[in-house]
TrEMBL record:
GO terms for biological process: translation. The lineage of its organism: Eukaryota, Viridiplantae, Streptophyta, Embryophyta, Tracheophyta. This is 40S ribosomal protein S24. It comes from Trifolium subterraneum (Subterranean clover). Residues 41-51 have a biased composition (Basic and acidic residues). Keywords: Ribonucleoprotein, Ribosomal protein. One of its GO terms (cellular component) is ribosome. It holds the Pfam family Ribosomal_S24e.
């Protein structure tokens, strides 16, 4: 089947200088699709931030992804 569109929006972007990382909240819109995997989200966020080459060796985590009641969106946090 064709890959359905997934829209990722970031908000509350923050640079944590004490821990040398960037943190932000992501909103994922995926209408007509059941869910998006964390690995898929991680890849899409890195491509959208254009930091894949620079941050390849650093640990990245997507945490606390929760679906909305309607099931067509999800919210979570990202730490780099």
């Amino acid at each position: 089947m064709a890959d359905k569109a997934v829209t990722i929006r970031t908000r509350k972007f923050m640079t944590n200088r004490l821990l040398s990382r960037k943190q932000f909240v992501i909103d994922v819109l995926h209408p007509g699709r059941a869910n998006v995997s964390k690995n898929g989200l991680d890849t899409k966020v890195e491509k959208s931030r254009k930091q894949m080459k620079e941050r390849k060796n650093r640990s990245k985590k997507i945490r606390g992804v929760k679906k909305t009641k309607a099931g067509d969106a999800a919210k979570g946090g990202k730490k780099k």
